[in-house]
Amino acid sequence: MSTGAANAVSILSEQLRELIRAQVPAAQNIEVTNLSPLTAGNTRNAWSFDARWDENGITQTAGCVMLRKAEAGQLETPLIPEFEVIRALGGTGVPIPRALWIDPEGKWVERPAFVLERVAGTSDFPALLRPEGAAISRGVAEHLVEVAARLHTVDWQALGLGFLPATSVKTAAAQQVEYWESLFRRHRMEPHPMIVGAFIWLKEHQPVADRITIVHGDFRYGNLLYEGKRINALLDWEMVHLGDPVEDLTWAYRALWSPASVMPLEEFVERYSKLSGIPVHPHNLIYYRLFNEMKHTIISLTGAKSFNDGRTRNIVIADRAATVTSYLIQFLDWLPEPRVRAAL
Description:
single chain; alpha+beta
Protein backbone atom coordinates (compact mmCIF):
# COMPACT_ATOMS: atom_id res chain seq x y z
CA MET A 1 0.00 0.00 0.00
CA SER A 2 1.34 3.44 -0.94
CA THR A 3 1.90 6.11 1.67
CA GLY A 4 -1.03 8.12 0.32
CA ALA A 5 -3.37 5.13 0.44
CA ALA A 6 -2.21 4.23 3.94
CA ASN A 7 -2.89 7.78 5.11
CA ALA A 8 -6.35 7.71 3.54
CA VAL A 9 -7.15 4.45 5.35
CA SER A 10 -5.88 5.88 8.63
CA ILE A 11 -8.04 9.00 8.24
CA LEU A 12 -11.13 6.98 7.33
CA SER A 13 -10.55 4.64 10.28
CA GLU A 14 -10.59 7.59 12.65
CA GLN A 15 -13.69 8.99 10.96
CA LEU A 16 -15.47 5.66 11.43
CA ARG A 17 -14.49 5.61 15.09
CA GLU A 18 -16.08 9.05 15.46
CA LEU A 19 -19.20 7.85 13.66
CA ILE A 20 -19.55 4.87 16.01
CA ARG A 21 -18.90 7.10 19.02
CA ALA A 22 -21.72 9.41 17.89
CA GLN A 23 -24.14 6.59 17.14
CA VAL A 24 -23.36 4.49 20.23
CA PRO A 25 -22.95 7.03 23.07
CA ALA A 26 -22.03 4.35 25.62
CA ALA A 27 -19.22 2.96 23.44
CA GLN A 28 -15.67 3.09 24.80
CA ASN A 29 -12.31 1.84 23.53
CA ILE A 30 -13.56 1.82 19.92
CA GLU A 31 -11.33 0.02 17.42
CA VAL A 32 -11.66 -0.07 13.64
CA THR A 33 -9.46 -2.67 11.95
CA ASN A 34 -9.03 -4.45 8.62
CA LEU A 35 -10.40 -1.46 6.72
CA SER A 36 -10.21 -2.08 2.98
CA PRO A 37 -12.13 -1.00 -0.14
CA LEU A 38 -14.46 -3.42 -1.84
CA THR A 39 -15.35 -3.30 -5.52
CA ALA A 40 -16.79 0.17 -6.03
CA GLY A 41 -20.30 0.41 -7.40
CA ASN A 42 -21.54 3.16 -9.66
CA THR A 43 -23.62 4.83 -6.94
CA ARG A 44 -21.98 3.70 -3.69
CA ASN A 45 -18.36 3.11 -2.72
CA ALA A 46 -18.05 0.15 -0.36
CA TRP A 47 -15.52 -0.42 2.43
CA SER A 48 -15.21 -3.48 4.63
CA PHE A 49 -13.99 -3.23 8.22
CA ASP A 50 -14.21 -4.81 11.65
CA ALA A 51 -15.40 -2.82 14.65
CA ARG A 52 -14.84 -3.51 18.34
CA TRP A 53 -15.93 -1.50 21.36
CA ASP A 54 -16.85 -1.81 25.02
CA GLU A 55 -20.42 -0.95 25.96
CA ASN A 56 -21.65 -1.05 29.56
CA GLY A 57 -18.86 -3.43 30.47
CA ILE A 58 -19.52 -5.81 27.57
CA THR A 59 -17.25 -6.11 24.52
CA GLN A 60 -19.14 -5.77 21.26
CA THR A 61 -17.85 -6.73 17.81
CA ALA A 62 -19.25 -6.35 14.32
CA GLY A 63 -18.09 -7.17 10.81
CA CYS A 64 -19.17 -4.15 8.78
CA VAL A 65 -19.59 -2.75 5.30
CA MET A 66 -19.80 1.00 4.80
CA LEU A 67 -21.63 2.23 1.70
CA ARG A 68 -20.68 5.82 0.91
CA LYS A 69 -22.21 7.90 -1.87
CA ALA A 70 -20.07 8.17 -4.97
CA GLU A 71 -19.30 11.56 -6.50
CA ALA A 72 -22.05 11.07 -9.08
CA GLY A 73 -23.16 8.18 -11.21
CA GLN A 74 -26.04 6.37 -12.85
CA LEU A 75 -28.34 6.87 -9.85
CA GLU A 76 -28.51 9.83 -7.53
CA THR A 77 -30.86 8.78 -4.75
CA PRO A 78 -31.02 9.73 -1.03
CA LEU A 79 -29.61 7.34 1.54
CA ILE A 80 -32.13 7.72 4.36
CA PRO A 81 -35.08 5.90 2.72
CA GLU A 82 -32.77 3.08 1.61
CA PHE A 83 -31.30 2.68 5.10
CA GLU A 84 -34.68 2.89 6.84
CA VAL A 85 -36.20 0.24 4.57
CA ILE A 86 -33.28 -2.09 5.25
CA ARG A 87 -33.65 -1.48 8.98
CA ALA A 88 -37.41 -2.05 8.89
CA LEU A 89 -37.08 -5.34 6.99
CA GLY A 90 -34.93 -6.90 9.69
CA GLY A 91 -36.74 -9.88 11.16
CA THR A 92 -39.32 -10.15 8.36
CA GLY A 93 -37.77 -13.18 6.70
CA VAL A 94 -36.42 -11.17 3.77
CA PRO A 95 -32.67 -11.90 3.62
CA ILE A 96 -31.18 -8.54 4.45
CA PRO A 97 -28.01 -7.19 6.11
CA ARG A 98 -28.56 -5.71 9.57
CA ALA A 99 -28.63 -1.91 9.48
CA LEU A 100 -26.14 -0.43 11.95
CA TRP A 101 -25.39 3.29 11.60
CA ILE A 102 -26.00 6.16 9.19
CA ASP A 103 -24.24 9.44 8.44
CA PRO A 104 -26.91 11.07 6.21
CA GLU A 105 -25.06 14.32 5.60
CA GLY A 106 -21.47 13.10 5.56
CA LYS A 107 -20.73 14.81 8.89
CA TRP A 108 -18.28 12.11 9.97
CA VAL A 109 -17.11 10.32 6.80
CA GLU A 110 -17.04 13.24 4.31
CA ARG A 111 -19.94 12.04 2.14
CA PRO A 112 -23.36 10.59 3.05
CA ALA A 113 -22.94 6.96 4.07
CA PHE A 114 -24.37 4.15 6.11
CA VAL A 115 -22.98 1.00 7.68
CA LEU A 116 -24.46 -2.51 7.44
CA GLU A 117 -23.41 -5.73 9.08
CA ARG A 118 -21.20 -7.75 6.75
CA VAL A 119 -22.87 -10.87 5.32
CA ALA A 120 -21.08 -13.94 3.97
CA GLY A 121 -21.40 -14.86 0.32
CA THR A 122 -20.49 -13.80 -3.20
CA SER A 123 -22.30 -11.52 -5.64
CA ASP A 124 -20.58 -13.04 -8.70
CA PHE A 125 -23.51 -13.17 -11.12
CA PRO A 126 -21.43 -13.94 -14.26
CA ALA A 127 -20.61 -17.29 -12.62
CA LEU A 128 -24.34 -18.00 -12.42
CA LEU A 129 -24.77 -17.35 -16.15
CA ARG A 130 -22.07 -19.75 -17.32
CA PRO A 131 -23.16 -23.23 -18.46
CA GLU A 132 -20.95 -24.91 -15.86
CA GLY A 133 -22.74 -22.98 -13.13
CA ALA A 134 -26.23 -24.08 -14.19
CA ALA A 135 -26.96 -26.34 -11.20
CA ILE A 136 -26.09 -23.64 -8.67
CA SER A 137 -27.84 -21.01 -10.76
CA ARG A 138 -31.03 -23.07 -10.79
CA GLY A 139 -30.95 -23.33 -6.99
CA VAL A 140 -30.35 -19.60 -6.61
CA ALA A 141 -33.22 -18.88 -9.03
CA GLU A 142 -35.53 -21.11 -6.99
CA HIS A 143 -34.58 -19.23 -3.85
CA LEU A 144 -34.96 -15.91 -5.67
CA VAL A 145 -38.62 -16.77 -6.29
CA GLU A 146 -39.07 -17.32 -2.55
CA VAL A 147 -37.33 -14.04 -1.74
CA ALA A 148 -39.54 -12.14 -4.20
CA ALA A 149 -42.69 -13.70 -2.76
CA ARG A 150 -41.60 -12.90 0.80
CA LEU A 151 -40.64 -9.31 0.01
CA HIS A 152 -43.87 -8.61 -1.84
CA THR A 153 -46.08 -10.00 0.93
CA VAL A 154 -44.46 -8.07 3.78
CA ASP A 155 -46.95 -5.75 5.49
CA TRP A 156 -45.16 -2.52 4.62
CA GLN A 157 -47.73 -0.39 6.43
CA ALA A 158 -47.14 -2.26 9.69
CA LEU A 159 -43.40 -1.69 9.23
CA GLY A 160 -43.92 2.06 9.19
CA LEU A 161 -42.75 2.64 5.62
CA GLY A 162 -45.17 5.50 5.10
CA PHE A 163 -42.17 7.75 4.38
CA LEU A 164 -41.96 6.19 0.91
CA PRO A 165 -44.00 8.12 -1.68
CA ALA A 166 -47.63 6.99 -1.54
CA THR A 167 -49.23 5.31 -4.53
CA SER A 168 -52.24 3.20 -5.46
CA VAL A 169 -53.03 0.29 -7.74
CA LYS A 170 -54.27 2.78 -10.34
CA THR A 171 -51.39 5.26 -10.11
CA ALA A 172 -48.33 3.04 -9.48
CA ALA A 173 -47.34 2.75 -13.14
CA ALA A 174 -48.02 6.43 -13.86
CA GLN A 175 -45.84 7.58 -10.97
CA GLN A 176 -42.89 5.47 -12.08
CA VAL A 177 -43.21 6.60 -15.68
CA GLU A 178 -43.39 10.22 -14.57
CA TYR A 179 -40.33 9.81 -12.35
CA TRP A 180 -38.14 8.21 -15.02
CA GLU A 181 -39.34 10.56 -17.73
CA SER A 182 -38.37 13.52 -15.52
CA LEU A 183 -34.86 12.06 -15.19
CA PHE A 184 -34.72 11.60 -18.96
CA ARG A 185 -35.55 15.25 -19.55
CA ARG A 186 -32.94 16.28 -17.00
CA HIS A 187 -30.08 14.09 -18.20
CA ARG A 188 -30.49 13.64 -21.95
CA MET A 189 -27.78 15.20 -24.08
CA GLU A 190 -29.68 15.02 -27.39
CA PRO A 191 -33.36 14.85 -28.43
CA HIS A 192 -33.92 11.01 -28.55
CA PRO A 193 -37.34 11.00 -30.29
CA MET A 194 -37.56 7.22 -29.95
CA ILE A 195 -37.42 7.51 -26.16
CA VAL A 196 -40.03 10.27 -26.23
CA GLY A 197 -42.27 7.95 -28.25
CA ALA A 198 -41.67 5.08 -25.86
CA PHE A 199 -42.75 7.20 -22.89
CA ILE A 200 -45.89 8.22 -24.77
CA TRP A 201 -46.76 4.53 -25.27
CA LEU A 202 -46.11 3.80 -21.59
CA LYS A 203 -48.39 6.63 -20.52
CA GLU A 204 -51.17 5.46 -22.83
CA HIS A 205 -51.10 1.79 -21.73
CA GLN A 206 -50.67 1.92 -17.96
CA PRO A 207 -51.91 -1.20 -16.17
CA VAL A 208 -53.69 -1.47 -12.84
CA ALA A 209 -51.58 -3.24 -10.22
CA ASP A 210 -53.06 -6.22 -8.41
CA ARG A 211 -51.72 -4.73 -5.18
CA ILE A 212 -49.15 -2.29 -3.83
CA THR A 213 -46.02 -3.80 -2.30
CA ILE A 214 -42.46 -2.90 -1.50
CA VAL A 215 -40.61 -2.93 -4.81
CA HIS A 216 -36.85 -3.42 -4.52
CA GLY A 217 -36.29 -1.70 -7.85
CA ASP A 218 -33.04 -3.49 -8.74
CA PHE A 219 -34.08 -7.08 -8.03
CA ARG A 220 -31.68 -9.36 -9.90
CA TYR A 221 -28.62 -11.56 -10.05
CA GLY A 222 -25.70 -9.34 -9.09
CA ASN A 223 -27.54 -7.62 -6.25
CA LEU A 224 -27.54 -10.54 -3.89
CA LEU A 225 -25.02 -12.45 -1.82
CA TYR A 226 -25.26 -16.19 -2.23
CA GLU A 227 -23.49 -19.28 -0.91
CA GLY A 228 -24.07 -22.43 -2.89
CA LYS A 229 -27.73 -22.37 -3.90
CA ARG A 230 -28.94 -20.08 -1.12
CA ILE A 231 -29.29 -16.31 -1.00
CA ASN A 232 -27.89 -14.77 2.18
CA ALA A 233 -28.72 -11.13 1.49
CA LEU A 234 -30.51 -8.91 -0.98
CA LEU A 235 -28.37 -5.83 -1.67
CA ASP A 236 -28.54 -2.39 -3.33
CA TRP A 237 -31.84 -0.85 -2.31
CA GLU A 238 -31.23 2.56 -3.94
CA MET A 239 -34.38 2.33 -6.08
CA VAL A 240 -36.75 0.95 -3.44
CA HIS A 241 -40.31 2.28 -3.65
CA LEU A 242 -43.94 1.27 -3.30
CA GLY A 243 -45.50 -0.03 -6.48
CA ASP A 244 -46.47 -2.98 -8.64
CA PRO A 245 -44.39 -6.06 -7.71
CA VAL A 246 -44.36 -7.15 -11.36
CA GLU A 247 -41.73 -4.46 -11.90
CA ASP A 248 -39.27 -6.52 -9.81
CA LEU A 249 -40.06 -9.78 -11.61
CA THR A 250 -39.47 -8.37 -15.07
CA TRP A 251 -36.31 -6.51 -13.99
CA ALA A 252 -34.87 -9.82 -12.81
CA TYR A 253 -35.35 -11.16 -16.36
CA ARG A 254 -33.62 -8.43 -18.33
CA ALA A 255 -31.15 -9.91 -20.80
CA LEU A 256 -28.02 -8.64 -19.02
CA TRP A 257 -28.56 -10.87 -15.97
CA SER A 258 -31.57 -13.06 -16.70
CA PRO A 259 -31.74 -16.57 -15.15
CA ALA A 260 -33.93 -17.68 -18.09
CA SER A 261 -31.45 -20.37 -19.16
CA VAL A 262 -32.11 -22.27 -15.92
CA MET A 263 -35.66 -21.10 -15.17
CA PRO A 264 -37.91 -19.63 -17.87
CA LEU A 265 -39.82 -16.50 -16.89
CA GLU A 266 -43.11 -18.40 -17.17
CA GLU A 267 -41.97 -20.89 -14.54
CA PHE A 268 -40.66 -18.14 -12.27
CA VAL A 269 -43.99 -16.31 -12.48
CA GLU A 270 -46.00 -19.48 -11.83
CA ARG A 271 -43.90 -20.36 -8.77
CA TYR A 272 -44.09 -16.78 -7.54
CA SER A 273 -47.88 -16.60 -7.79
CA LYS A 274 -48.28 -19.87 -5.91
CA LEU A 275 -45.99 -18.72 -3.11
CA SER A 276 -47.24 -15.14 -2.83
CA GLY A 277 -50.87 -15.41 -3.85
CA ILE A 278 -50.27 -12.44 -6.16
CA PRO A 279 -51.52 -12.98 -9.74
CA VAL A 280 -49.34 -11.74 -12.58
CA HIS A 281 -51.51 -10.53 -15.43
CA PRO A 282 -50.09 -10.81 -18.97
CA HIS A 283 -50.58 -7.11 -19.70
CA ASN A 284 -48.72 -6.09 -16.54
CA LEU A 285 -45.92 -8.50 -17.42
CA ILE A 286 -45.31 -7.14 -20.92
CA TYR A 287 -45.85 -3.57 -19.74
CA TYR A 288 -43.13 -3.76 -17.12
CA ARG A 289 -40.76 -5.54 -19.48
CA LEU A 290 -41.13 -2.53 -21.77
CA PHE A 291 -40.96 -0.05 -18.89
CA ASN A 292 -37.74 -1.59 -17.58
CA GLU A 293 -36.00 -1.16 -20.92
CA MET A 294 -36.76 2.56 -20.61
CA LYS A 295 -35.75 2.59 -16.97
CA HIS A 296 -32.33 1.14 -17.77
CA THR A 297 -32.04 3.49 -20.72
CA ILE A 298 -32.42 6.47 -18.40
CA ILE A 299 -29.98 4.99 -15.88
CA SER A 300 -27.42 4.74 -18.70
CA LEU A 301 -28.05 8.29 -19.91
CA THR A 302 -27.72 9.58 -16.34
CA GLY A 303 -24.34 7.89 -15.98
CA ALA A 304 -23.10 9.26 -19.29
CA LYS A 305 -24.28 12.78 -18.37
CA SER A 306 -22.53 12.59 -14.99
CA PHE A 307 -19.24 11.75 -16.71
CA ASN A 308 -19.77 14.30 -19.47
CA ASP A 309 -20.41 17.04 -16.89
CA GLY A 310 -17.22 16.15 -15.00
CA ARG A 311 -19.13 15.21 -11.84
CA THR A 312 -17.51 11.78 -11.78
CA ARG A 313 -14.23 10.31 -12.99
CA ASN A 314 -15.66 6.80 -13.09
CA ILE A 315 -14.58 5.65 -16.55
CA VAL A 316 -16.87 2.61 -16.28
CA ILE A 317 -19.93 4.75 -16.93
CA ALA A 318 -18.38 7.05 -19.53
CA ASP A 319 -19.82 5.11 -22.48
CA ARG A 320 -23.15 4.08 -20.94
CA ALA A 321 -25.07 6.02 -23.62
CA ALA A 322 -23.79 3.47 -26.14
CA THR A 323 -25.95 0.80 -24.49
CA VAL A 324 -29.18 2.67 -25.20
CA THR A 325 -29.63 1.38 -28.75
CA SER A 326 -29.82 -2.26 -27.65
CA TYR A 327 -32.44 -1.40 -25.00
CA LEU A 328 -34.55 0.47 -27.56
CA ILE A 329 -34.33 -2.45 -29.97
CA GLN A 330 -35.57 -4.77 -27.23
CA PHE A 331 -38.40 -2.35 -26.48
CA LEU A 332 -39.47 -2.43 -30.13
CA ASP A 333 -39.23 -6.22 -30.30
CA TRP A 334 -41.60 -6.58 -27.33
CA LEU A 335 -44.00 -3.82 -28.34
CA PRO A 336 -47.37 -5.52 -28.88
CA GLU A 337 -48.88 -3.12 -31.46
CA PRO A 338 -47.22 -3.49 -34.87
CA ARG A 339 -48.64 -0.18 -36.14
CA VAL A 340 -47.25 1.72 -33.17
CA ARG A 341 -43.93 -0.08 -33.59
CA ALA A 342 -43.77 0.98 -37.23
CA ALA A 343 -44.58 4.60 -36.33
CA LEU A 344 -41.83 4.68 -33.73
